[in-house]
Amino acid sequence: MSFALLTPLVGPLVLAVLSLALGSSPLRRFLGLASSIVVLGSGIALVTAVMNDQVPTAGGGMLRADALSAYMLTVVGAVGLISTWGGLKTAADSRGQGAGIFEALISLFLAAMSLAVLADSIGLMWAAIEATTITTAFLVGHHRTRTSLEAAWKYVILGSVGVAIALLGIVLIYAASRETETPTLSWLLLSQAGLSLDPALITAGGALAVLGFATKAGLAPMHSWLPDAHSQAPAPVSGLMSGVLLAVALYAILRIQTITNLVIGPDFLRTMLSIGGLLSLAIAASLLIRQVDYKRMLAYSSIEHMGLMALGVAIGPAALPAVLLYMLGHGLIKATLFVISGRILHIEGTPVISNVRALLARRPGLAVPWLAAMAALVGFPPFSIFFSEVGIIMAGWAEGMGLVVMIALFLLLVIFAGLTRLTVGMVLGSPTPTPTPAFVSATGSIPSGSTQSIATIQSGPGDETLLVRDFSTHGPILPIILALAVTASVAFIAHPIGDLLERAVSVLGGTN
């Protein structure tokens, strides 16, 4: 099965080169989607292997698939599929002459994320996560507007600081391993019980590594790059960053936590992650109440969900199955919402929440999936985010973290109220007729030379052409349906999902 380890790395790299070589061919817009399919297929193949008690390796042991890495690779592929497939049309409309570079960067991003979850060396894992800073910086600034370039620079600076801190932590962990017979950065070796590692170096290295990766995960107080980057990036990129980049950074924290727990116990990182998680929830709650931009609203929601996942990681093995399920559910739903937000922006011509009203009456094809995905995001059953949140809260209570759980519940209630108010404001209400603009002729056409898109013109109730639009004209609907269906059903699948989650937790040294 070693080919399944190499395919998600080599396949996207080949497709990246192909996207640059195809020139103006319309086929190149599908290459990002093809990369996602390659990664997802490899993830499913590796999941099948580990469920059959195999441990695929390649590159002399540098690449290795256990239950956790196989699961994470599947999450990367699934979220990538929804983002690239769902964003085909709206992204294509904005790519222009940079389409080949855009698709190449998407493929390189997926290859780097695949390497991060498949690498046995925590040094190689760090290098792969650092590589995403380069690819996503260009993707965030793809529109080349002043705000998008500013967001890209902010992301580069803060992201680079974060990964530099993480590198220092990894160097200290390696220094601690030099006291053993075999100095190493292999996670498999470092996570073995009984290894004589220097507690002081592991404490300092673990803290720095977690702090650095927390920057990439969007945890407060290192979160400030996230709202700008997610709101300015093209919709498929926002979905990938929210659903894949943040989850893989949290995966890196899980790997580091396993090493530190064996040497110094769980209390140190538990305190650190609890503070970061609660602070993330508090910042998201305070800023969502007065949010005016729906893409930034989704970005702050990512900070909220990553904060709750960090609390789950802090709680420990009892909450880890819920955290891993959370990664999949949040990734699929957030990719769906960013894809739909891109379509709303394309049609309405504005990211301002107060300028988008009565979507359910005017554009039900967009409003209905938006409402369903928002219901999943705020934690309504039967969507898996509900079960993940309940699992984390119950585990925290059982582990004696009742005060932390109560604070988190209060903040979640504030966030729920804020997201509900903003969503209702966008979706409900009656459309308000507005006078036909002076530049629109009696036949409804726009004179040549006008720069305003007809998609931004408000229409009266009698205009059936603009009141009801077919959702599929703005992009494929099937990925949206698939994402919602999977998120609504995955929590009820005991086998193989439940078994896979149990195996993944056991890899980290925990049991259910």
UniProtKB/TrEMBL annotation:
Membrane-related topology note: Multi-pass membrane protein
Ranges annotated as spanning the membrane: 6-23, 30-50, 70-88, 100-118, 124-143, 155-176, 196-214, 235-256, 268-288, 308-328, 367-388, 400-419, 476-494
Keyword Cell membrane listed: yes
Protein's UniProt keywords contain Transmembrane: yes
GO molecular function, one term: oxidoreductase activity
Keywords: Cell membrane, Membrane, Oxidoreductase, Transmembrane, Transmembrane helix
Signal peptide stretch: none
Domain NADH:quinone oxidoreductase/Mrp antiporter transmembrane: 120-410
Location in or out of the cell: Cell membrane; Membrane
Domain of life of the organism encoding this protein: Bacteria
Ranges in coiled-coil conformation: none
GO cellular component assignments: plasma membrane
InterPro entries the record matches: ComplexI-like_HydComp (IPR052175), ND/Mrp_TM (IPR001750)
Protein name per its UniProtKB record: Hydrogenase
